[in-house]
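Summary for the funding panel

The consortium committed to producing paired sequence-structure records for every protein in the target list. Below we show the first two records in order, beginning with the earlier of the two.
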Amino acid sequence: MLMDKVTRFFWFCSGAHVDILKKYPVEHNKYVGIGATIFFTALFAALSGGYAMYFVFNGDAFAVGFAILFGLLWGTAIFNMDRYIVSSINKDGSTNKQILQATPRILLAIMIGIVISRPLELKIFDKEIRQKLKTSYLKGQNRKIDTLQKTYTQKYAMELSKGAELRKEKDSLEKDINRSRFQLNQEVFGDKTNQTSGITGYGTYAKQKESVLKEKQDRLKTVTEDVGKMDQYLSQRKDFEGLNNLRLFTDKQLDSLANVAGFADRNWALGQLTYNENGTRDLDTYLAISFIGYLFILFECLPVLVKLMSPKGPYDVAMAKMSEADIHYAERDKERDMAITDNVFDHHLDADVGNRKKALTNQSEANMERYRYR
């Protein structure tokens, strides 16, 4: 009982005329297979469309509801289209005529297969797509930081150059002060060198060296203050340009961005999976993605191909005869309507002629009576 219901359901899916098909048991299995293929193609289309719509409304409270509704609508549309494509193929003509008749339907089936397969490919390669998106977002953030840094360097080149000169002078002064302080100690303690007199005590030479050291320390203090002011100014400029607030994404932020990525971003990432970092084709990934698409295209074209490859059976002959009978009935019905219309028109014409004759006769008699009494 259950199998009978399943069989009748798949017959309905195949677009066959159930009452005629029942008369030819040899055709039952063929149309069960065609109907099952159409049904499961529509089922995959519903899952694919629902998954795609889920990512369109990802984050929305009604995302699941929208996905289910669109999946049902999309699956129903594909089901009706496939059912029409298969049921409209006429097995009455020659092989070339059937192929020519089926060509636009096969092209349409290929387009449907491509549309169905893409969202499912996105789900199958979800992990790889997430990793590709993270890498892309990280590279994009790096490029943004590099662009801002380059713009900042060009815009404040004079200030940066002056700051570098001040830091260079500060480093030079610090080294010079250390050297001068060492020479002052040698002068005070009477160490004889080519830079000291060798006289112990705080004499004239020591006072001169101390004076020079103090001048250098005063200059270092001024330069240090100038460096601090320049660094503070440049830091304010970085804040103004947004450079200080820009940081590389953390792993948590990258996961969050990958989770909310839209359908277009994920579709782009899927395409990029077929290329290596150096721009060459990643053949393994390319073939894996392509064969999934080819599988759904073949699956979508299968009902049409089965109908084309199957020999002309008794069901096809019966449908052709029924079609001829219906056409003949319609033609005869047309002829009957035309004959009825002609007879009705002739009847009305005869009646109108009779009424006209009667009117003219009455008028003639009236005229004769009027002239008789004159």
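The next record, for a separate protein in the list, is shown here:
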Amino acid sequence: MAQAAGFGSDRLRVGLPKPAQLPRHGNSHHAPAAMPRWIGRCLAAATACAGFAVAAIPAAQACTRVLYTAADQTVIAGRSMDWHTDNSPSLWAMPRGMARDGATGPGSIRWTSRYGSLVVSMYNIATVDGINEKGLVANTLYLAESNYGSPERKPTLSIAAWAQYVLDNYATVKEAVAQLRREPFRIVAPVLPDGEPAQGHLSISDPSGDSAIFEYVNGKLVIHHGKAYTVMTNSPTYDQQLALNSYWQEIGGSVFMPGTARAADRFARASYLVNAIPKAKDPALISAVPQQSFAFQAMASVLGVMRAVSVPLGVTDPKLPNIASTLWRTTYDQSDRILVFDSATSPSAFWVKLDGLNLSAGQPVRRLDASGGRTYSGDVTQQFQPAQAFPFLPGIPKR
């Protein structure tokens, strides 16, 4: 397992102009003739970054994840799901005590869930998002560069169950990192129902604001662990995303931000915005927030960030097959264990209070079907219905 280096390491050299050469803080007194030069440099940089980021990406999958910590330690995670076709999301209440396996045949890892969870599935074959009873959140995002290597005589786990395994077994990021560093399983990545490879990386966060990113690069597990890792998108690998983003941080988001839907550009915008939104009650706006609650304000702010980095419904580019429309977004209040689900095809968002779900061992699995144009609004905690748990997409290990 390779441990990630810090922010300043492995900085990419992609012909970017030095940030010091650009005007700062929106200096409007610069001569008009100078503006095309620095804008041109920025545009060239954005093109270079985006071009690097999408090289060799074969399919139209993209997402963004952010992690926000307020001054009062309110912690909120947000993610967008960008996909090229309807992926039929459902929300599931998974009780404690569920016996599971890795869906990879006789060599599958097996476990019994220690914690109940509230999760979001795609195609009813994979957990891609969720929160458990301890407030641990897991998000799986696409990463074309993923290479999970060979099982090496270890138990195996379908990538469709990766996030669920973490939510079932761990209470904190620190605990998850300590255990997963030992690699108790190897990931198997089968082909999805739409014919695309199930390649991804995983982010987790907990109510303390701790965060970790897990990637398999060249067959090796790489972990980025620490509260600084607050944004994740897609390609390139995470160390290179950090290097690209360090350039834009030096410029400053109030001067210029890359604006395409490509992963490197979304990373830069999300990084700026999640740090720009208020970390405490906004006296100019709090009167408009229900109950004048800062937690509600913070959730709205993070949802605003996710909407700002989303791709409008129906936007595609045949020349850029990695660009896909945002289908839905989630935000999680990790302290109060509340999930807000925001569908791009619905006129309203809705929310679920995990503490209002009975996740005791022996309780039935329950489902809220968010597919097929169904619409919900407000608190839908009591609208979940008993259902058979979905089977994880099976995979066949290459031994």
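Regarding this second record: The chain has one domain: 2-7+60-272+306-386. The first helix runs from residue 34 to 54.
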